[in-house]
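Exam revision sheet. Question 4 asks you to relate a sequence to its structure. Input first:
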Amino acid sequence: MSYDAIPIRPLVSLFELGWRSVQESADAQSQLKRFVIGLVGSFFIGSANPGFNRATGIFTMAFTPSKDHRRREREQKKLDKRMAREAAKAEKRNAEIDAQEAAEEAAEKAEKEAAEKAAEEERKAKEEAEFEAELEAERKALESGEN
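Answer key, structure tokens:
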């Protein structure tokens, strides 16, 4: 399949006016072809294609992630894992501290309840002793009154 010859001179001057990047050299025809393909492709592809440069109207090579990009992804993955481990350790440490505080609080509450219970028993024992003393005094008064 062959193509008809395209008069290059008017197209080159048009290209120079519109895009200001073509050189009059041996590769002017290949640059012109890229320009035309890029111009036509821009209508269909638009700026969404990262391989198409709208400024030059030239398609660049397909984008593939570099080894550096993969290295950065690996490092980011490692960093994410480390942050997750540190967060889990901090959570565990906080849970242990909370459990220790709860145990101390429970011990203080139990100690306070034991002290209150002991005070209540002591008050009841004192009351009982006073009652027994009064009862004994009344009984002695009745015995001395009978004699």
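Marking note for examiners. DSSP finds three helices and two strands in the chain.
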